[in-house]
Write a structure and sequence with these properties.
single chain, Cytochrome Bc1 Complex, Chain D, domain 2, mainly alpha, 404 residues, 2 domains
Length: 404
């Protein structure tokens, strides 16, 4: 049995024989009816009354055990009582829209909501979701490793780490990931014309493209290992006008592609595509139209000799690292010790995914949750949901500390 102290409350991770999240107190120790923590101090009679409410109104979805068989419905057995009560009040006030939950609770008294919250909090929590037999299936690779695997088919043309050894094929190492995703999307949609590229990227989803782009962005960039015909001195002078978007020496500080070290024949072919309209980019239309063939080759030769630099790319946190941030509020391994914060351990993965996406979209309002989820993609959220679904849920009892 573990004991911790938080403010004027103490909590104990308790064995199953103790009611989870509730404790019976003498009358003089009971908080006032308006106290926000009242649900954490429910009496045995409150729990018994709450069971009757649950039998009448909640079992169709949540079951009397609080561990539903209905997909998308959360486990609420052993959940923190104060959190459950607060959420029920939000549903009653219409804060979740016109949902089945809203329709069930809108005519229930606050006393009934408090007691049913205490009842479900008193139950044994669910068991964690089973871990897949395959270790590979239970731990998704990080985004860079996933990108490397997804980019395996790119090596034949672009080089294993994205540095081209093939004339006419662009180097991809060190390019801004947003640019690479936009380029792949343009090939996929047909906005960029290349049948081979369209076929290769057609099966890629958003997560795959993001991972591939991140992999190449994090590789050490180098000059393409191909010939670069043209006059570099003349090319440097002609490229002065390109610096506004592509940076000095072709090292971009924006989402415009870096050109330093880029394969010369690819550069020339891309320039032609902007000139003939097969690549639609308004910013490139005028420069392409006014630049002759010899000057294009000179610019290509100049950029091919420049040393590329790695972009400033934020590598996404792993699932374990993301969970460490979540644990600050939701407790170690998702076992909340704050009666106001929900426990996440052993929660249904698909429900956690749904709720996290709702916070991302603003359908659920929380400044803290919106900040925590900022920048996370679908794979990050799926990883977090599965991580907590497999953690063991623990019962908890709250008790008041004696006054000094």
């Amino acid at each position: 049995m573990k004991h911790r102290t938080r403010g004027k409350l103490s909590f104990i991770f308790a064995p199953a024989l103790v009611l989870a999240g509730v404790i019976s107190l003498p009358a003089f120790a009971q908080p006032a009816a308006t106290d926000d923590l009242r649900a954490a101090y429910a009496t045995p009679q409150d729990v018994a009354d709450g069971k009757k409410v649950a039998q009448a109104s909640c079992t169709a979805c949540h079951g009397i055990s609080g561990i539903p068989a209905v997909k998308g419905v959360p486990n609420i057995a052993g959940q923190r009582a104060v959190y459950l009560h607060r959420e029920l009040l939000v549903y009653k006030a219409g804060g979740r829209g016109n949902t089945p939950m809203n329709n069930v609770v809108k005519f229930m008294s606050d006393d009934a909501l408090l007691k049913v919250a205490a009842f479900y909090a008193s139950l044994d929590p669910p068991q964690p979701a089973p871990t897949p037999k395959s270790k590979a299936a239970s731990a998704a690779p990080d985004s860079v490793s996933a990108g490397k695997a997804a980019a395996a088919g790119c090596a034949g043309c672009h080089g294993e780490t994205g540095i081209s050894k093939t004339p006419g094929m662009p180097s991809l190492a060190g390019l801004d990931p947003k640019y690479l995703v936009a380029a792949m999307s343009a090939y996929k949609s047909g906005q960029r014309k290349n049948d081979m590229m369209k076929t290769l990227v057609s099966a890629l989803g958003e997560t795959d493209m993001n991972n591939i782009a991140l992999f190449f962005a994090t590789q050490k960039p180098g000059k393409a290992q191909t010939p670069a015909p043209g006059k570099t001195t003349e090319g440097k002078a002609a490229a002065a006008a390109c610096a506004a978007c592509h940076g000095e020496g072709g090292v971009s500080t924006s989402t415009a592609p870096s050109l330093a070290g880029q394969e010369a024949q690819y550069f020339t072919a891309a320039f032609h595509a902007y000139k003939d309209g097969s690549r639609a980019e308004p910013m490139m239309k005028a420069p392409a139209a006014s630049t002759d063939e010899a000057t294009v080759k000179d610019i290509a030769a100049y950029y091919a000799t420049q040393q590329p630099q790695a972009p400033n790319v934020r590598i996404p946190l792993s699932t374990a690292e993301l969970a460490q941030r979540c644990d600050r509020c939701h407790g170690v391994d998702g076992n909340s010790t704050d009666p106001r914060a929900p426990a996440l351990a052993s929660q249904r993965a698909e429900y956690l995914e749904k709720v996290l996406h709702a916070y991302q979209k603003g359908e659920r309002k929380s400044t803290a949750m919106s900040a925590m989820l900022d920048g996370l993609n679908d794979a990050d959220i799926e990883g977090l949901a599965n991580y907590y679904a497999r953690k063991k849920a623990r019962s908890v009892v709250y008790i008041p500390l004696p006054s000094k």
